[in-house]
Amino acid sequence: MKLKVTALRAEAEHVVSVELRDPNGGELPAFAPGAHLELTLPADEPGTPPHIRHYSLCNSSLEKSRYVIAVGLSSSSRGGSRFFHEHVRLGSILNSQLPKNNFPLDHYANHYRFIAGGIGITPILSMIKWCLENKKSWSLLYCARSQASAAYFEELRTLGPNVSFHMDDSAAGSFADLKAALANPLGGEHVYCCGPRSLMLGVEEASAHWPENSVHFEWFSAKEIAPPPQSENASGEFDVVIKSSGARLRVSSDKSILETLEDHGLAISYSCRQGVCGACETGLCDGIADHRDQLLTPEQKASQKTILLCVSRAKSSSLVLDL
Questions:
Q1: Cα(71)–Cα(301) distance, rounded to whole angstroms?
Q2: DSSP string computed for 266-288
Q3: Is 236 left (phi over 0), alpha (psi -120 to 50) or beta?
Q4: CB-based contact 246:229 (threshold 8 Å)
Q5: Cα atoms found within 13 Å of the Cα of residue 33, Cβ hemisphere only
Q6: What's 2-96's CATH class?
Q7: Cα separation, 323 vs 321, whole angstroms
């Protein structure tokens, strides 16, 4: 779909919020808290592929006429955040897929404990608004380098004692005490965390004693480099079969499925190439996948109905892909 930029606002140092609406003034497809948009941004140079990037929706899911995202300028930007900060203007038209949700909110928790770091506040903000609209019990720990770099700081501090801040510069550079914050889980309580990898790993460690499926993450990058291939085949090689054409392609031990498909001229949607965003998720018609992503749930992996092509491999001698 086409989306028009109708407002731009500085939310913090190097963070801009972008309001997007239908160019013709119509209603937009609905979304739920935790959802994101997959935007296709222009290529850096002619003949190079466009940039596909994912941005969490941070406005209320009750709103039907607009989407709001926030984009932090990364010093290591590969084209996405830099494009927004340098080239997007009022009236710009962006290409987007429909909202997708890999970080859904459980609507029946007794309490929601949100932990966010930096730009990771964006999906959490939409979740907080849902809690307010539905009179749900919640709390937020928001960690940032400084108040100046904390997106939506002014809005969040109006929400009272439900929100606590940890600013590194005012804490002599020390990190938040996550073990204390997560020491005593309440019955029916859920944790939702999004932010830098160091924060996410800290929350993962501090919440290891929490009940299964009660702690949820949205990862920006993979926790660790994927291990070397461990296929049942001694060589680490296997075949992929394209269901629509019957073409059979050999995946070598030093290539991913995604890279193999690209080498044979197939245009596959992708973004992170680390198994965290879901852009390359593809239906699996036959075979047993060796799932190495950090996105699919244990139930989804066990079902063997889908696979992330950028990192996962095969336990069987071949995989039939729904392409």
A1: 31
A2: -----S-SSSSS-TTEEEEEES-
A3: left
A4: no
A5: 20
A6: mainly beta
A7: 6
Which pair of tokens denotes residue 113? 């404990």
**From CA 40, how far away is CA 20, in angstroms rounded?**
14
Q: How far apart are CA 57 and CA 152, in angstroms?
A: 14
Q: Which two tokens stand for residue 196?
A: 């830098």
Q: What whole-number distance in Å separates Cα of residue 279 and Cα of residue 309?
A: 9
pLDDT digits (tens, 9 = 90+) for 246-285: 999 999 989 999 999 999 988 887 877 888 888 899 999 9
DSSP assignment string, 80-92: HHHHHHHH--TT-
Ordered DSSP codes for 176-226: P-HHHHTSSPPTTEEEEEES-HHHHHHHHHHTTTSPTT-EEEE-SS-SSPP
Token output for 122:
């964006």
Domain boundaries, the chain: 2-96, 111-218, 238-321
Tell me the per-residue pLDDT of 125-184, one tens digit each, with 9 for 90 and over.
Answer: 999 999 999 999 999 999 999 999 999 999 999 999 999 999 988 877 778 999 999 999
| Alpha-carbon gap, residue 44 to 157, rounded angstroms | 39
What superfamily in CATH does domain 238-321 come from?
Beta-grasp domain (3.10.20.30)
Tokens coding 286: 């036959």
Non-local (6+) Cβ contacts of 96 within 8 A are 1, 2, 3, 20, 37, 38, 39, 40
Report the half-sphere exposure of 197 (CA within 13 A, side-chain side).
7
Classify domain 111-218 by CATH number. 3.40.50.80
Angle (CA) 165 168 174, round 5°: 110
Question: Are the beta carbons of 138 and 218 closer than 8 angstroms?
Answer: no
Yes or no: say if 286 and 239 are a contact pair by the CB < 8 Å rule.
no
